[in-house]
Amino acid sequence: MPSPFEQAVLRRPTAPAPAPVQTGRVTRSDSTGVWITTAGQSEAHPSGPCRGGHRPALATVDGTPRLQREQLPVGVTVAFVSTTTGPWILAWEG
User: Fold this and answer.
1) What's the Rg (C-alpha) of the chain?
2) pTM exceeding 0.85
């Protein structure tokens, strides 16, 4: 791998490796957000609050169906990446 000086001279800096996608389960969903644990992680110490922990939901308001947002409920399986700003939920099942 070239040195930082050689990278600057060649003007081809290396890109950081993308964060790996992991799977987990929602273990807490409250007013502070959605918290998740991975397989083998203690439920006493979940990761979170997660970004992207909402899903569209159909609700009836005054007899009219409307699309609203709701937090993911406990027990939902999610795909997420861990970043420096915290975990980001990419997709969910259920």
Assistant:
1) 19
2) no
Q: Which residues contact 45 (CB under 8 A, 6 or more apart)?
A: 37
pLDDT digits (tens, 9 = 90+) for 36-89: 999 888 888 898 899 988 888 888 888 888 888 888 999 999 999 988 888 999
- The rounded distance, in Å, linking the Cα atoms of 60 and 12 is 55
The rounded distance, in Å, linking the Cα atoms of 91 and 69 is 15
User: Is residue 71 a contact partner of residue 16, using CB atoms and an 8 Å limit?
Assistant: no
Residues in the chain: 94
Separation CA 1–CA 84 (nearest Å): 25
CA separation for the pair 16, 93 (Å, rounded): 29
